[in-house]
Design brief:
By secondary structure, the protein is of the alpha/beta class. It contains 24 helices and 22 strands.
Length: 606
């Protein structure tokens, strides 16, 4: 057997650069790295040696580097991924939030945090977490519940099995998610004689599991018997590449489609059978169809509470069917499972249904919905009025084209965009709402642009989320990545403030005006963005925003437009109840009234 002598870190990076997609590209598109104690000597030297085959990017925060990698994987349809390496201690711990985000959203990312010395010679090493009852515990044990596969590399030769297991997890559609390979720092630098065959390029094909014939027959019978079926499109439609197949299936069999946050843009907004967003942030057209359904056919959805209205949206008597590649999701809430790849399952179902068509849905629901909400996105008649978030969305929509990707994460914008954004094609809407993680937006926008450089990426972010994580704006400027950032400054956490009011609470500690302060907050966000290297401006009206968005298209790098907005209004139409527990005892009448309404709503849970 021919061998080659390399350090463990060198072997890891060489092996990763040889793992290919079916399209002939490296599955790991590159490595985000902040070097420090625990990875600079071993992994740093290894990445330098592989720099021509495995690109290394430098970020400014471990969590947001991972957010960029996660957004890249999501926008790539899970066909490619990125790796992230950090030091031990705080560098590693900063990755845990991002790992949880990837786990919830079923997205591949390879996390390579440094770890303590396997040989324990310098114990306790700098940044080492000492557990007085377990000598094997390190900070990296925090990754275990938020990783789909976890391993700690304490010997070089362990990579011979750990690396293929990592790739198997990231490329398995049923088990896809974050992988953590905690890499002991002395082992990174240790040399080993590796079989040359280990580095032979390998193609990883994404499997498309076929449906079980018995499950297929059962689901076919249920669809045939249904009088008012509805399809709930989830993120799995995108990951399977099944959007055109879903559109054909719905058209052929006359079944209306509603879209979750992850599934939005599966069908063009103007498709006659796209009844719009569903659930808590849904359209009245979609929720009315679901409320009257006798069969709910989920395709690639995990039925999160925002999709189901905390399980009060669908009638108790409605049959639930779940087409999902993951058995865990296919069996949720007593659903009749069809455990298979979404594209293959829809093709098989369509063939089994033949010429069957469901009774037509109420075609008047869609026009009524748009008649209600389109005025909300129009430019205001009073140019001096403080703009609403819906008016900001209207400006971005007017400036967008077929190649635009609008993206956001937690806060006000997920709800408003889910309701109001008109996505023209798959991939035109990118929302991190599985983990509802503030701070995803700017790094995520950068990752989207890296995945699809020809797309026009617009990130809409609130001032609260911007303050949590803005450092990768400097990375985007440094790398010349052109993204447009629309920063809506409502002077606090407007979304949670509205929820606080809705549950009977007093306005407290959310808007800056209601928080303890010795000096009033007065942040010049445009100046701050400019200091990070972005082109930026503050605009005073929606008309000015329209003009700024036109200028942003010609920027050489990130372009930030700041606009002040009203923190109180939100789209009054559509939506559905969401289970947020209200205090059972309070001295405030508003809370007691909200508690009574809460108990009444609970009666409708199925």
């Amino acid at each position: 057997m021919t061998t080659i002598r390399l350090t463990a870190a060198q072997a890891m990076m060489r092996w990763l650069s040889a793992q290919m997609t079916e399209d002939g590209e490296p599955f790991i598109a590159g490595v985000w790295a902040i070097f420090g104690h625990g990875n600079v000597a071993g992994i740093g030297e290894a990445l330098y040696a592989e720099r021509d085959r495995l690109r290394t990017w430098r970020g400014h925060n471990e969590q947001t580097m991972a957010h960029a990698a996660i957004a890249y994987a999501k926008q790539s349809g899970r066909r490619r991924a990125m790796a992230v390496t950090t030091s031990i201690g705080p560098g590693a711990a900063n990755l845990v939030t991002a790992a949880a985000l990837a786990h919830v959203n079923r997205l591949p990312i390879l996390l390579i945090p440094g770890d303590v010395f396997a040989g324990r010679g310098p114990d306790p090493v700098l940044q080492q977490l000492e557990d007085w009852g377990d000598g094997t515990v390190t900070v990296n044990d925090c990754f275990k519940p938020v990783s789909r596969y976890f391993d700690r590399v304490t010997r070089p030769e362990q990579l011979l099995t750990a690396l293929p297991r990592a790739m198997r997890t990231m490329t398995d559609p049923a088990d896809c998610g974050p992988v953590t390979l905690a890499f002991c720092q002395d082992v990174q630098a240790e040399a080993h004689d590796w079989p040359e065959a280990f580095f032979t390029p390998k193609v990883w094909r994404i499997r498309r599991p076929e449906p079980d014939i018995h499950e297929l027959a059962r689901v076919t019978d249920l669809i045939r018997a249904a009088k008012r079926p509805v399809i709930v499109a989830g993120g799995g439609v995108h990951y399977s590449g099944a959007a055109p197949t879903l559109q054909d299936f719905a058209s052929r069999h006359g079944i209306p489609v509603v879209e979750s946050q992850a599934g939005k843009s599966a069908l063009p907004w103007d498709d006659p059978l796209n009844f719009g967003p569903v659930g808590v942030t849904g359209a009245s057209s979609a929720n009315t169809v679901c409320a009257g359904a006798d069969l709910v056919l989920g395709v690639g959805t995990r039925f999160q509470d925002f999709t189901t209205g905390s399980w009060t949206l669908f009638p108790v008597e409605a049959r639930l069917v779940s087409v999902n590649v993951a058995a865990y999701d296919a069996m949720k809430h007593g659903a009749e499972p069809l455990c298979a790849d979404a594209l293959v399952a829809l093709q098989a179902l369509s063939a089994a249904l033949g010429g069957h068509r469901a009774p037509p849905p109420d075609i008047g629901l869609k026009p009524a919905w748009f008649a209600a909400v389109d005025p909300l996105t129009a430019a205001p008649a009073d140019a001096n009025a403080l703009p609403t978030d819906s008016q900001v969305i209207g400006a971005v929509q007017r400036a967008s084209g077929r190649d635009t990707v609008v993206m956001s994460a937690a806060g006000t914008m997920p709800g408003e965009l889910h309701k109001l954004w008109k996505a023209p094609r798959p991939g035109a809407y990118h929302m991190e709402y599985g983990f509802s993680c503030m701070g995803y937006e700017i790094a995520g926008a950068m990752g989207i642009k890296m995945a699809q450089p020809d797309r026009d990426v617009v990130c809409i972010i609130g001032d609260g989320s911007y303050m949590m994580a803005n450092s990768e704006l400097a990375t985007a400027a440094m790398m010349g990545i052109r993204i447009t950032v629309v920063l809506t400054d409502n002077r606090g956490y407007g979304c949670i403030n509205r929820l606080q009011i809705a549950t009977g609470g007093a306005e407290f500690n959310n808007l800056l005006k209601d928080a303890f302060a010795v000096n009033p907050s007065a942040i010049d966000f445009a100046a701050h963005a400019r200091s990070l290297g972005a082109t930026s401006e503050h605009v005073g009206s929606i008309t000015d925003l329209d003009a700024a968005l036109a200028r942003a298209k010609f920027a050489p790098g990130p372009y930030v437009v700041v606009i002040d907005t009203d923190p109180y209004p939100s789209t009054p139409h559509g939506g559905h109840w969401w289970d947020v527990a209200v205090p059972e005892a309070s001295g405030r009448a508003q809370v007691n009234a909200a508690r009574a309404a809460y108990l009444s709503a609970l009666q409708h849970r199925n």
